[in-house]
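#structure-requests
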Amino acid sequence: KEAHILSTLAAACAETGDFPEAIRWSTEAVAVGNSEIDEQLAKELKSYEAGKPWREKQAVSAENNEEKSSPQPDVQPDDSEKESPAEQNDQATSASD
């Protein structure tokens, strides 16, 4: 078993909303991890325990990103679970009816 493979399985479970399984596989990844990725694995596990999926940030080349901002960490918890503006508008419209 390799930690990065178990981590990927945990991420897939979290993406489908199966956080108990994500926690299970992430815990196993932490147990078999190595010093190079232990910190990231622990952060991923905490994210799943908080009910949030974890996604790796994709590198964007300077050519494709003219508005270059300050460097961001390579990976971070995903906040895509928030409502989109369209969903917020739908709720506001239905509340005013």
